[in-house]
Amino acid sequence: MHAITRDEVVTALKGCVDPEIGINIVDLGLIHWIGIDDKNNIILRLTMTSPMCPVTSVILADIELRLEHISDVGEVNIDLVWEPAWTAEMITEEVRLGMQV
Questions:
Q1: Is the pTM of this model over 0.85?
Q2: 6-99 classified as CATH 3.60.150.10
Q3: In 3-state terms, what secondary structure has residue 58?
Q4: Which among 40, 56, 92, 99 could disulfide-bond with 74, CB atoms 3.0 to 4.6 Å apart, if both were Cys?
């Protein structure tokens, strides 16, 4: 069994795109914290762009599916949090610059 790395988790999460916005959840700034223990269990703390986000369940299911496909993964635990609240400033600078007209 190999030890899962943060980079593996981030790469998997970059495949998860918010269907309303069209930006992956990493660059969108939704990920607050990634934890990986010695049994390859992944703990993910993230937020949504709004507590009323209509695609929350779709995004959470996609996250779980992508993380469960990482080789040697243990359990996947997703903790949806609302503090700090998401703001557009959380979008990566690279994506923000590409969005400017």
A1: yes
A2: no
A3: helix
A4: 40
